[in-house]
Specification:
Elements: E1 2-6, E2 15-19, E3 29-38, H1 41-47, E4 66-74, E5 86-90, E6 99-103, E7 107-109, H2 116-120, H3 123-135, E8 143-146, H4 152-163, E9 168-173, H5 176-183, E10 189-192, H6 198-205, E11 211-216, H7 223-229, E12 230-238, H8 251-257, E13 260-263, H9 271-284, H10 286-291, E14 298-303, H11 307-315, E15 322-326
Parallel strand pairs: 8-9, 8-11, 9-10, 11-12, 12-13, 14-15
Antiparallel strand pairs: 1-2, 3-4, 3-6, 3-15, 4-5, 5-7
Length: about 325
């Protein structure tokens, strides 16, 4: 089969489109013909040599954390799937390819109303956003702040927070165009971080109270303003650290606000945890994808062979929603 292989750590130019052996499924696996996969920031880190695939070293370093496709074969100890089924799911790696194998407990039926491109952009960011909001114990009526509102996680979190009953969803982005598009997804307040202090704007909009839940993908540079943005007994979950991982922390504000801060990640979790998270998502969110209440904005689609160009585009931060690789 054809796949994108990271030849060595480096820039987009190290991504090679080449032949590799077909994957071999085990008795609890599904063999899937991939129709689409999507880019995630973790792919850029993996390509640079900073985020290796968990587990034993793979024979070929193939990025890709999610996919949509058609079941080719089902192992003897799989349940609920058969050849020809439309599926989507989380991977620890290997999505930039024509085929993959996935443990059947991590696979989900892809809603019929979603295109292959849309379904391929669901698993990683939508499950991440749903899981992060659950970890923050978001309940109906609470206020939320979501950074990088135009990113894959951002557009997912806006919609899922509204689905969960948030009364006020605010978000940050670096352009007014992205904020306008995020408002169309249900965001109540958009803040351009290039022209406004987001903490000041959040406090102004909430009569000085702040937000109950904050989803952060930026990291170090936002720590102080995130703390100012949190309400008393607020909860923040750190999903990414695009600006860095080290900063000076005033521990006093955590005690004064009785705030909670936690980190999260999907890729390295054991099978049981991933399976549980997947099933919760399938039960709570997939029906809303199937009804059209939650949508999957696609920014651009590249052929699998042009993965390097797709990575270069992601580095530009110009996208709103998902960047997809067509693997057909």
């Amino acid at each position: 089969m054809k796949a994108i292989v990271i030849s060595k750590p480096g820039g987009p130019e190290v991504l090679e489109y080449r032949d590799v052996p077909d994957p071999v499924p085990g008795p609890e696996d599904l063999l899937v013909r991939i129709h689409a996969t999507a880019l995630n920031r973790a792919d850029l880190l993996q390509r640079a040599g900073n985020y290796p695939q968990p587990g034993p070293k793979a024979a070929f370093d193939i990025p890709g954390l999610e996919f949509s496709g058609e079941v080719v074969a089902a192992g003897e100890r799989t349940d609920g799937f058969a050849p020809g089924d439309r599926v989507m799911g989380l991977l620890a790696g290997g999505g930039y390819a024509e085929q993959t194998v996935i443990h059947h407990r991590l696979a989900m039926t892809a809603p019929a109303n979603l295109s292959w491109h849309e379904a391929g952009g669901v698993p990683e960011v939508y499950i991440t956003a749903h899981d992060a909001l659950l970890q923050c114990d978001l309940v109906a009526g609470e206020r939320v702040l979501i950074h990088a509102a135009g990113s894959g996680v951002g557009v997912a979190a806006i919609q899922i927070a509204k689905m969960m009953g948030s009364s006020f969803v605010s978000g940050t982005a670096g352009s007014d165009e992205k904020l306008d598009r995020a408002r169309a997804l249900g965001m109540d307040l958009g803040i351009n971080y290039r022209t406004h202090d987001f903490a000041d704007e959040v406090l102004k909009a909430t009569d000085g109270q702040g937000v109950d839940v904050l989803l952060d993908v930026i990291g170090a540079d936002y720590w102080e303003r995130n703390m100012r943005s949190l309400a008393r007994k607020g909860r923040m979950v750190i999903v990414g650290s695009m600006s860095g991982t080290k900063t000076e922390v005033n521990l006093g504000i955590l005690g004064a606000k009785r705030a909670q801060v936690r980190g999260t990640g999907l890729r390295a979790r054991p099978l049981e945890e991933k399976a549980t998270t997947t099933k919760l998502f399938e039960k709570s969110v997939v029906p809303h994808l199937a009804s059209g209440r939650i949508t999957v904005p696609i920014d651009r689609v590249f052929p699998l062979s042009e993965a390097a160009a797709a990575h270069t585009y992601m580095h530009s931060n110009a996208n709103f929603g998902k960047i997809v690789l067509d693997c057909e």
